[in-house]
Structure formats: C-alpha cells, structure tokens
Amino acid sequence: MAYVAVKGGERAIEAAHAWRAEARRGDPALPALDPAQIEGQLGRAVDRAMAEGSLYDRKLAALAIAQAEGDLIEAAFLLRAYRTTLPRFGASLPLDTERMAIRRRISAIFKDLPGGQVLGPTTDYTHRLLDFGLRDGQAPPAAPVADPDRAPMPRVADILAAEDLIRPDPPAAAEPADITRAAPGFPPPRDARLQSLARGDEGFLLGLGYSTQRGYGGSHPFAGEIRMGAVSVEIVPEELGFAIDIGEIVLTECQMVNQFAGTKTEPARFTTGYGLAFGHADRRAMAMALVDRALQARELGEDATAPAQDAEFVLGHADNIEATGFVEHLKLPHYVDFQSEIEAVRRLRAMAATALAEAAE
Amino acid sequence: MLNPEPTPKTPRQSWMAVLARADAAAIADQLPPNDLLPGWRLLRGPEAGLIMLRGRTGGAGAPFNLAEMTVTRCTLRLATGQVGHATIAGQDPRHAELAALADALLQDPARHAALHAALIAPLAAGQDAAREAIAARAAATRVQFFALQTMRT
User: Do residues B51 and B72 touch, judged by C-beta distance below 8 A?
Assistant: First the structure.
C-alpha cells in the first residue's frame, strides 16, 4: 500500500478540526455537556466504550464519549490509544464473581434457586414507549427498598456442577494468554478467545450469537444465569507480598447452559458458554457466552461448519478498532495506487482496440 | 445479596480497602494538619498505570485476561520509619498519596487508635451504608413467586 505524501492539506485539516469542535459544542445557548453527566446518566454508553476500549475507567470513557460526539467506536479507539501511554503494573487476582455484591441476578432455568430471582435496574419489562416525561427533567420517585437477604447466591453453574451435570473445564494453563502482548496461534486457546470476545464489537457478537440461535451452529442455549453487581479488585504488590483491595468494578456475567449428548468416553452433560462484560451489559454478556460456546465446537467433537464456530473468522473480525481502521483507511489518499490501476485499464483497452483493428484488416 | 468474604482481612488490608474506596477530599478532611505530622518522603509515585484484570472461565475455572483498568500507586516513608503504600482504582494522584500517607500513619502504634477512629471508622461506615442502600434496592426487585393455590384461598 502506498500513500502519496499529502502536502498542502494542513490548513484544510485545521479548518475541518475547528469546525468539528464547534459542531461538537452544539448550540452555544445550551449548557455544555459535562463528562460527569455522561458518566452518571449515559452509563450503558460508558460500559460499552470501556468494553470495546478494553479499559475500565468510567471517567476516561465518559470523556472519550464526549470527545467522540457519542460515536462509541471512536470513543473506544481513543481509550485504546490512551492505554498505550501507560505502563502495566501487573495483573489482578482472578475476579471472584461468586462474591459479587448482587444488583441483579436471574436464571431462566431454575425458578426457585438459592438467593432467588433479583431483577435489578432492568429495562426487560418496559413497553419501549418513549417517556416524554424525561423532557421535563422531573426527579424520578425514589426506588423502593426492602430488607436485604444475607442468603448466599451460588452461581447456577456451580449448582449444576455439584451434581456433575456440567462438563468441567480443562485444567488451567500456568499463565493465561494475553492477546495484547502476543498474537494467539490458531486454533487459539479458550483464554485467548475469551479475551478477544470481551473486547469484541457488541454488534458483531450479537449477530454471531443470533446466528447460532437461527441454526448456524446451534447448540440449544438456555440462560442459566445472568448476574450483575460490584466485584472487588485485588492485586498483590511485590513490595507488600499480600493481597490488597484497590476498589470495585461493576460486571455482568452470563452463563449459558447448552445441551451436550456426550461421547463414548464422556457421559451426557451440559456444556456452558461464558460471558463477562464491564458494567450493566446483559446483551453483550449473553452474546459473548453464545459465541464462546459455539467456538468450543472442535473441543467438544462437534462439526464446525457455521461462521460462529470458526475461531479464525470470529476472532479475526470481532475487533471494531482493527475493523474500522482497515475499512476507513480506504478514505485516505490512494492516488498513486489508483493512477497505476487507471493506466493498466487504459493499456488493456488500447491493446484490445489494436487487436480488433488488426483482426479487421 | 451481600456475599460473605471467604478469607477475613488483616487490619491493614481492611483499612487499605477502605482508603482505596474513599476519595482524596474525604481522606484529607480527617488527617491531622501537616504541622502535626512527621515529615515523609515519596519512595515511588504517585504514578498512573494499568492493571490487567483477570476473570475465570465459567466464573470458577481457569484464569483469563479480561481487559485492563487504570490505577494509581504511591509508596512513601515517614520520618518515623513507617512505609505506607496505596494502589487505587482510577487516576487521582492526590488520592493515592493521601491513602499511602494514611496507611503509613495507621502503622504507627502511637497514632493508630485515634486515626482509625477519626478516619477509617466513619469512611467504612459510609461505604457500608452505600452498599446496604444498593442491596436494599436489589432486595425490592426480588421476584416473590406465589402459587395458584394461595390465590384461590
């Protein structure tokens, strides 16, 4: 790929950026948007920018969304770029979602389960009617409260595993793969797949997950459990040698439970697909879990014929920062490339015309 | 809705968790004025960086790298010898430095009781109350299934 050096565009670019900044500000008669408002009031946009930006920081994500005028892929791009300016101090201990401070926890497979069904701040049962009351800026009524139950809320997958009804995960690698440091080989191991899916484009994951439901690699999923809430982050600083709690992040976790007929060596059991997403993100966590399950086809001895089961296809195209970079680079000058294409076409046409003339003689 | 801790924390782990969840202003408000504090020297930071967050496959299985988060860390030494450390979520260098300072001061037996009562106890109570408020809202959204039988009577 050859780009022509672009000279003489500087003033046009400066003017374009200035106009963009003015357009972003919008009507100067209205107050400017404070990123703190985005953080507080556009939480689902913040969640998505953090997931696809692969960086948990609600304040930075809100700033990125403001800067990107609400374009969430652009916001994620800004976060990815910012991330490269910071050193990495280490890795956390594995997040313990069993100890999540539950805000929402539902299961579509057990009505009565320990801890019960907790809907949380969901939109699931709204009628999707526009709420014109929001235009008046009225304060909402206070949410009802009830006495919190201290009963533990075991994960549904663990309840099934206790009865040996779930296929256990293979033993862990010593150090999990990190796709930000080394490209995973093919076929990629499950840890590398999960890391790729966690930062994958939500629309792409949703479409692929949907395709598995419509018969392209179907695996009869049930939403075993979706839980959302705050989880403590713990690290072990080298200088201390013991774990310290550095704060909380909000996560949504989804366990899909799928049929598995068993093999000659394995009893019939359920398999699971796993989704883990920043913030309150049912759709992302569910789509991720569907695709995670589809990508286990080969390991489970299933025919891998559908797009969602093809790790090379899925992981190669899930990253919207890579995708937008390659698609949108087509806008940049390709003058020299195209000039050579034009000359080739003209040459071919001239040769054809000559051949025609010679044939006529 | 409040799942118990699997391993109890040491006192230092407990106060470090409270300081990490506080903000700079709340810590600064309850620290003694500078002229009543021993001097301190920054050993490292405060500096911004990243932590790679790890999840577990299926929630309980093999670890995998999920994504990163921003953190700020700081280590300092008091003139009286105690070394304080803080790593906090997010990007507030003042929060990290004040949390490290409080961590060092709390390790001084002569200061511990008063500072714990003035700083850690109220912050911890506030954080517990915030957690309880969320748990109470969640509890109100718990589905109370009732059987048809009870409807007939």
Answer: no
Asked if B136's CB is within 8 angstroms of A55's CB, the reply is: no
In this structure, what token pair is assigned to residue A334? 């390709």
Provide the Cα torsion B11, B12, B16, B19; round to 10°: 70
Contact between A317 and A204 under an 8 Å Cβ cutoff? The reply is: yes
What are the chain B neighbours of A172 within 8 Å (beta carbons)?
61-63
For residue A171, cis peptide bond before it (omega within 30 degrees of 0): no
The answer to whether the CB of B88 falls within 8 A of the CB of A246 is yes
DSSP B73: E
pLDDT in tens, B86-107: 999 999 999 999 999 999 999 9
- Facing residues of B55 across strands? B64
Instruction: Report the DSSP beta bridge partners of residue A20.
Output: none
| Strand pairing class (A88-91; B40-56) | parallel
Please count the residue pairs, one from chain A and one from chain B, whose beta carbons lie less than 8 angstroms apart.
250
B87/B109 Cα distance (integer angstroms): 23
- Contacts of residue A295 in chain B, CB cutoff 8 Å? none
Q: Contact at 8 Å (CB) between A226 and A282?
A: yes
Please give the Cα distance from A223 to A32 (Å, whole number). Answer: 42
Give the residue-averaged pLDDT of B122-136.
Answer: 96
Question: Can you read off the two tokens belonging to residue A130?
Answer: 């526009």
Give the pLDDT score at A2.
46
ipTM of the complex: 0.92
CA angle A167, A99, A192 (to 5 degrees): 50
DSSP B61: S
Whole-number Å distance between alpha carbons of B31 and A153: 39
CB contact under 8 A, A83 and B50: yes
Q: For residue A101, which residues of chain B lie inside 8 Å, CB to CB?
A: 1-3, 131, 134-135
Contact between A51 and B67 using a beta-carbon 8 Å cutoff: yes
